[in-house]
Specification:
By secondary structure, this protein is mainly alpha-helical. About 60% of the residues lie in helices and about 0% in strands. The protein is globular. The structure holds heme C (HEC).
């Protein structure tokens, strides 16, 4: 065992404590997010087809929860990118990526708008309808 001067041992202990507290704090937050993500993904698998009424509700939910940043009909604003865009076509950002974005947030990586915070108040079955609505807009714009 290496013998270290007492000062170095004290510093190491302090760091260990900081890391431990950080890990506990992250775990708490991630547990909630992960649980909501799991519940949404389970629904994604069991909702093979959305009705016209579901898509209309998806539009209302999008306007309420997403449009402030992503714009009317997902056309983008100064706070967030358009989602009717090739970057977000299903082959590049599948439904899983949408569920993850809404439930756990997004770190800025494609654009320079900043991070997207998780959307807290939206329920799993509502997220599915919002995704259905965005996919409809994408198809209408020829993005498949
Ligand atoms: C407070 C602003 C804000 C709100 C509200 C918001 N977003 Fe975002 N969203 C962003 C920004 C900014 C990005 C781009 C991050 C980047 O640079 O890639 C983003 C990215 C995304 C992405 C891409 C994720 C990826 O993996 O790259 C999806 C999908 C998305 N948002 C869906 C939604 C949906 C659906 C809603 C509503 C339920 C919503 N967002 C609400 C700001 C927002």
């Amino acid at each position: 065992m290496a013998v270290r001067p007492p000062a170095a041992r004290g510093t190491a202990r302090r760091w260990a404590l900081v890391l431990l507290l950080a890990a506990v704090a992250c775990d708490d937050r991630d547990a909630g997010d992960a649980e909501r993500m799991e519940r949404t993904l389970a629904q994604l698998a069991t909702v093979p087809h959305l009705t016209q009424a579901d898509l209309e509700e998806g539009e209302r939910l999008f306007d309420r929860f997403c449009a402030a940043c992503h714009g009317a009909r997902a056309s983008g604003t100064e706070q967030g990118p358009p989602l009717v865009h090739r970057v977000y076509e299903p082959a590049h950002h599948g439904d899983y990526a949408f569920v993850r974005a809404v439930t756990t947030g997004v770190r800025a990586h494609h654009w320079s708008f900043g991070d997207m915070p998780p959307v807290e108040e939206i329920e799993p079955e509502q997220i599915i309808k919002v995704i259905g609505y965005i996919r409809l807009l994408q198809r209408e714009a020829g993005i498949r």
